Each structure stands twice: as structure tokens, then as C-alpha cells.
UniProtKB/TrEMBL annotation:
Residues 29-48 bind DNA. It comes from the Bacteria. This is Transcriptional regulator, TetR family. SUPFAM superfamilies: Homeodomain-like. InterPro entries: Homeodomain-like_sf, HTH-type_Tx_Regulator, HTH_TetR. GO terms for molecular function: DNA binding. Residues 6-66 form the HTH tetR-type domain. Keywords: DNA-binding. It comes from Hespellia stercorisuis DSM 15480. The lineage of its organism: Bacteria, Bacillati, Bacillota, Clostridia, Lachnospirales.
Amino acid sequence: MDLREKKTKRNITNAFLQLRAQKPLERITIKELAGLAEISKATFYLHYHDIYDLSDTLEKEIIQDILDGLPHADSVLSDTSQFFRELIIAFHAQQHLIEILFSGSRANILPYNIEQGIRQHIFQRNPDLRDDAAFNTRLTYQILGCYYAYTENRHLFGEKQVLDALDQIMQTMMVSPTT
């Protein structure tokens, strides 16, 4: 990608984030985005099919950044407390963008896709767990529960207290495979 293309994509992204912080995705038009990014509508369409394609691309980048921020993803099988602490830290590192991109109608996409990414990682190394109902149910419960418990309570009690509470919960609820 040449320098002009990088600059154009950066302008599109910045304009989109600015608009998305102010209004729902469904109310953003290509015309206003192009105007704010100082590009033509045709230039936008060279890079993206529509506003949803742009949003989806940015969402996938954030999700991948979160997954890449889990240096010990395999620890979900052995040290759930450490794993979920790392997961919350990875969420927190992207919090500003998460609040913009995953608000409104897009709110449930993030935890679901994080769960799917972690699940895929685990199944690559442990394919036998794919059919373990107890393991899969606990994993979903823990990932989604951890995410929602953190996001709903961090403003009320502070991040440290919520992380400590989640630590205690995860220590009592191992996600390891059934034997």
C-alpha cells in the first residue's frame, strides 16, 4: 500500500470514528463521511463496499488486537484466573475504540467474536474439546460473563475491585475440560 492510500484510509477511519462517536452506524452516510474525510464518494467506494463494510473491517481489527493481546491464550485451560485477567487488560487497552465501534446495535458483536476467536484457538490445539458440552458451556459463560460483569461494574466499583472479584469467581470455576 502506497503512502497516498494509507493516508486516504487513515482519513476515512478518522472521519468514521468521529461520526460514529456522535451517532449510530445506521445514520452515517457516505456523503457526510466523504466530506469529513475530504475525499470523494468514489474514493470511499474504492476501499469499501459500504459503511457496514468499513465498520466490520475496523471491528475485526480491534478484535484481532484483543486476541493478539492474550499472550497466554492456552492458559484458559489451566489458569483461568490469569487468562481472564489478561483478557480484561486486552479489552481495557482498546476501551476507547470499543466504546465507539461496539455501541448501539453493534454492542453484542465484540464479546461474541472474542469468544469465537478464543474457541477457535483452543480447538486448533485441542480438537477433542469441540464436542465437550460442559467445556463449551463453561467457556461461553465465563467469557461472556466476564466481559459483561466487567463492563457493567467497572464504573461503579473501579477496575481493580472488579478485577479482584472476577479473579475470585474464576478461581472457583475452572474452565478445564471434563474428565
